[in-house]
Amino acid sequence: QGVLDKRNFYDPSMRVPLLCLAPGLAAPGTVVDGFALNVDLAPTVLELAGFEAPAGWHGRSLVPLMRGDDVSWRQEFVYEYFFERAFPHTPTLFALRTPRFKLVKTWGLHTPDLLFDLQDDPEERHDRAEAEPDRRKALASRLTRQLRALGLRADPVWGTNWVADPHDAAQPVGAVELGDEPVDDVSSAPE
Q1: How far apart are CA 137 and CA 129, in angstroms?
Q2: Which of 5, 84, 103, 153 is most deeply buried (CB count within 10 A of its CB)?
Q3: Maximum CA pair distance of the chain?
Q4: Minimal CA–CA distance to 95: which of 83, 113, 110?
Q5: Partners of 101 in the beta sheet?
Q6: Rg, Å, the chain Cα set
Q7: 3-state secondary structure 55-104
Q8: Which of 40, 9, 15, 18 is nearest to 127 (CA)?
């Protein structure tokens, strides 16, 4: 894609194959198409060790998928990357990934949303956001719901001066000042 590093939303960066050896649990050559996330690893290890994951954890054990059980599984997930001063060329990114589509929102820059049809464009080279505004809006709403369900802000906050000393950072981006207290400006956040 011509990007500088892995800190991006393209599938080769955000999706990594998970390989496991589980004699007696998963048959050799088993392939599972569901979305396995890094947050699923701890609940999986706990279940394999005979324990239950604590309530409130975001991940789910992969053991039922490994056994081949017919279970309801996630059909979408949120990708997040937060701006780091050491890597200033990649802004804060949120994406919603479904089996077919991916919506990407960039915060801190005035760039439009990106929408990819991964079935027709698996290399993510053709943005469909302008051509499919209703789909973009629907996915943006789902992304916002997912962010809220995870307890994440739809308008991430960081200092306005990325270069200055972090202790001297001014008002957070995405906030307006009314009186003495900053108030979230959600007018640009997707609903």
Answers
A1: 9
A2: 103
A3: 64
A4: 113
A5: 117
A6: 19
A7: CCCCCCCCHHHHHCCCCCCCCCEEEEECCCCCCCCCCEEEEEECCCEEEE
A8: 9
Angle at CA of residue 39, ends 30 and 190, nearest 5°: 115
Q: Report pLDDT for 187.
A: 35
For residues 96 and 146, what is the distance between their CA atoms, to the nearest angstrom? 9
- Cα torsion at 39, 44, 46, 52 (round to 10°)? 90
Distance in angstroms (rounded) separating the CA atoms of residues 58 and 136:
25
The amino acid at residue 9 is F
Inter-residue contact 7 to 13 (CB < 8 Å): yes
- Residue reference for tokens 């789910």: 60
pTM above 0.90, yes or no: no
If one counts every other C-beta atom within 10 angstroms of the C-beta of residue 61, the result is 20
Does pLDDT of 136 surpass 70? yes
Residue from 152, 149, 154, 156 nearest 56 by CA? 149
| Spatial contact of 86 and 4, defined as CB atoms under 8 Å apart | no
Query: Are 155 and 167 spatial neighbours (Cβ–Cβ below 8 Å)?
Result: no
